[in-house]
Amino acid sequence: MSPRSVVVLGYGMAGARLADEIRRRDPRGERVRLTVIGDEPHHAYNRVLLSAVVGGTMRPESVRLHDEEWAARHGIDLRLGVQARELDRAARTVTLTDGTSVEYDALVLATGSKPWLPPVEGLTGEDGELAEGAVAFRSLTDCERILEAAAVGAPVAVLGGGLLGLEAARGLAGRGNLVTVVHPADHVMERQLDAGAGRVLARTLGDFGIDFRLGRFAAKYVPGDGLKLDDGSHVPADLVVVSAGVRAETELAAGAGIAVDRGVLVDDALRTSDGRIHAIGDCAQHPGTVSGLVQPAWEQADVLADLLTGADTAARYRGTPVVTRLKARGVDLAALGETQAGTGDDGAEVLCLDDPARGRYAKLVLRDDRVAGAIVLGVPDAAATITQLYDRGLPAPSDRLALLLGRALPSGAPNAASPADLPASAVVCRCNSVSKGQLVDAWRAGASSVAELAAATRASTGCGSCEDAVCGIADWLASTA
Fold first, then answer.
1. For residues 25 and 331, what is the distance between their CA atoms, to the nearest angstrom?
2. Which of 64, 250, 402, 437 is the S-S candidate for 260 at Cβ 3.0 to 4.6 Å?
3. Residue 464 has what pLDDT?
């Protein structure tokens, strides 16, 4: 029996992970003949770590997910620097921008998202492209352009105070730039944080030299000069970094008659309205999760690899309870579940610690004695323990204040401080769904260093926030060997 032809449109983090998982289940290509189409000229990289590239703490080559020989080594037809131009569902073909076409038995849309450009006078030209001196913050090429344009000590404006905007701002400030964040909402990261947490976070980032213009819109951009805001004030800037949000890439799907809304609509088998076409990652819209984060995309890739290879035809994607972490040097922030609930919510128990002078803000939302949401800023021990309770659905300890502060907990509560106390089922790396037990198994199989554990399990290769935990487990395993 000849293998089925699977074509993956998109070679970002979702498409690359799907290809890896397909070959993990079908290493010799006996079941799946795999073609991957990537619009960027280089191999896949970890987009989550781009702020570290901007900040100078990581080199571009260190965030690569694949080496140059990856495709040949795994029998994958990888085509770089080319995009899908037209999808013919009846003929089951995709026409590419280089004039070639590929046939498919199953097609996967992993086209991701594109930056949204706010309607600022002078920011874009007639062709819709950003004007000189303005750069989006979305790709490795964008990082290269930012580093070329942002001379040390030069003023830089960041349009957008969401997750990516703040990561870019912190990276640039760490390089020695004078950074001003312009954000239309009254507080930063309003999708993930309440007003109190947003205020403390802005103050914390302010200690790193970042200025904020909150509740303000950019009205006009003048290349080489900066931004004029809606209140008439001026923000000097040699460079404007645009990070005002993203929009799912749905044009190809919509043009082919596939159902789309904010993204390409998919069911639990990650099928679109055309059963031969699937979608994962930022371009997909599933009711069980939000887009824009790596963990849902990689969990979707696992499920879809099971289905496409026949390894598990009962596999289904039921959604991802997302934990958002800010990757900004010197800032420890985690937000999960219901973050906007207030003390007036009769169905919830809400506790809050507001300590801006010390850069701490902790909010805990409990329903039926279980963690339903939390914001933890500047209290890393509490963040680790609360996340474990949230992941595992366990009852919260009766001493709520101890939990909120990350102090010693009552007997029976999970203690994040010691690897020995973690149960084998505890999730250490959320991005890759790696448990402590899997790390222990990998160690016993011969992975005797942090790097080898990462290679064997992928732990710490996503957002990087679990690196300390993986190191702690590796040290503990070494001490008990």
1. 38
2. 250
3. 66
Whole-angstrom distance, CA of residue 104 vs CA of residue 87: 11
pLDDT, residue 453, reads 86
Residue 125 C-alpha from the chain's centroid: 30
Residue of 243, 244, 236 whose CA lies nearest to 211: 236
Cβ-contact 50, 62 below 8 angstroms: no
Q: Quick count: other Cβ atoms within 10 Å of Cβ 289?
A: 20
Half-sphere exposure of 158 (CA within 13 A, CB side): 30
Listed as own residue / partner, the contacts of 273-276 with beta carbons closer than 8 Å and 24 or more positions apart are: 274/89, 276/89, 276/92, 276/104, 276/105, 276/106, 276/107
Task: Kindly report the number of other CB atoms within 10 A of residue 197's CB atom.
Answer: 25
Q: Is it the case that residue 424 has pLDDT exceeding 80?
A: no
Q: What is the pLDDT of residues 167-183, one digit of tens each?
A: 999 999 999 999 999 99
Residue 125, class by beta-carbon neighbours within 10 Å (0-12 exposed, 13-18 middle, 19+ buried)?
exposed
pLDDT for 421 equals 66
Element (H, E) at 13: helix 13-25
pLDDT at 409 over 70: no
Q: Residue 414: which pLDDT band, with cuts at 50, 70 and 90?
A: very low
Cβ atoms within 10 Å of 368's Cβ, excluding its own: 10
Residue in 440, 479, 477 with CA at minimum distance from that of residue 456: 440
